[in-house]
Amino acid sequence: MKWFIFSDLHGSAYWCGKVMEALEREGADRILYLGDVFNHGPSNGEPERYGPPEVIDMLNAHADRIIAVRGNCDIETDQSVLKYSMLEDYKAVGFGDRMIYATHGHIYNENNLPPLAKGDILLHGHSHIPACEDHGDFLYLNPGSVALPKGGSTNSYMVMTESGIEWKDMDGNVTMTYSF
Hints:
The chain is of the alpha/beta class. The longest helix has 14 residues, at 13-26. The protein has a single domain (3-179), classed as 4-Layer Sandwich (Purple Acid Phosphatase, chain A, domain 2), CATH 3.60.21. It is globular and about 40 Å long. Helices cover 15% and strands 31% of the residues.
């Protein structure tokens, strides 16, 4: 099983197009989207080629493979145009012998944990900075941001398989790895 994981698109049709190219290249079975679909909020600038109508079409074309959570910039009317569920604060997803708690990061995060068991994975975006931190009892992962990277990071996503995780820039170059 191969998962494509990304976050913080913020309505950029340009970067959503890059996500679609990466999806094709990666051949992932599932897509895990960690929130902030259309709106960019007051603390972020407008992303490159802001175009929610184009983003809607591109994401809906993959609705049958998308598992998503709500970001702090997502609102209920966003759900009305999407063909996949995206209003939950977190989703617990089985991945092999691990449980992934996927969330955006504005409610549940390293300082306010969801109900994790030993060995589980806390996966969120929100900070726009890629991360991998082993806390002993749980593993914290962040794919960074597709459209608005911060902290000197590059536009990025993650690919997760049973053997581990790769963080990649939008051209598919590996920037960081973690093995299970």
